[in-house]
Amino acid sequence: MSAPKTILFPTDFGGHCDRPRERAVRLAREWRARLVILHVLPKLGDSADGELDRESASVARRRLCDEISAQDVRITTRLAYGDVAEEIIREAAELSADLVVTGISRHDEIGDFIVGTTVERLIRRGTAPILVVKQKAGGHYGNLLVGTDFSDHSVAALRAAIALFPEAVLTVMHAYRVGSAPLRGRDEPAGNRQAEIAFELEAFLDKVGVPDDVRDRLEINVDYGDVCSVAREHVRTSRTDLTVIGSNGRSGIVVEVLGSTARNLVECLECDLLLVK
Predict the structure, then answer these.
(1) Among candidates 255, 159, 149, 266, which has minimal Cα distance to 210?
(2) pLDDT digits 0-9 by tens, 126-154
(3) Three-state DSSP class for 161?
(4) pTM (global) more than 0.70
(5) Distance CA 107, CA 196 (A)
(6) Which residue of 52, 100, 227, 272 pairs with 175 in a disulfide if CB–CB is 3.0 to 4.6 A?
(7) Half-sphere exposure of 105 (CA within 13 A, CB side)
(8) Which tens digit of pLDDT belongs to each residue from 39-84?
(9) Strand 130-133 relative to strand 272-276: parallel, antiparallel, unpaired?
(10) Those residues with Cβ within 8 angstroms of residue 123's Cβ, 6 or more apart along the chain or in another chain
(11) What is the Cα 138 distance to its own chain's centre?
(12) Element (H, E) at 199
């Protein structure tokens, strides 16, 4: 996987777009990629007032032009009409976008992140990697957590992390549980499972083809518990600024239909997340 050449940043001009916009600009600058800013309006004709449609389009075009003024980034603006998620997916495919950068809302009352319908549909149905931005773009992504269940989808996630951020500190995380083992005497089956995981981990790293220099500095986090709790604890106690996961898998790390595990990861982790197809 090479550095992205085209980054798609959809915006509705809301305040929650500020952080993903900053990150999209920074990544476009780092990778010398083209940044495409997209805004989606309701389908033409949905309004009874055609003049209102034209005025909305005119305002949107002006706002797109004003959205980013970075002189050292190649920027293209696009205006689309229709369902927001469907148009983002269509535009990403038409542009052969290598990355879609989006934001996420935070619930003011409890402080948790909330996955919106549009983001959920992008993750489920889009083909390009999705970067969900939560934090301010204060610097490079320098400390990455890569979740793995040893599936091919996890292979893709780790390969992407290595290729896109070659200088970053990488931690490979695997969470496991001992199926229906009674609490009493659980230590032995847990120990057996750990031995199995050690073999699986070596085979996984060999399959990824991790370069020797990366492997020497690769950190491993294998812990007992559900994947969300293990990941959240790691992010909270480390300086992790980006978590990378595959878009599908045989167990814990799974986003095939944005199930509860994936939703919890996206919502509960404080850092940004990259979901790799």
Answers:
(1) 159
(2) 889 999 999 998 889 999 999 998 888 88
(3) helix
(4) yes
(5) 40
(6) 227
(7) 12
(8) 998 886 655 555 667 788 888 888 878 777 777 889 998 999 999 8
(9) antiparallel
(10) 130, 247, 255, 258, 262, 266, 275
(11) 17
(12) helix 187-208
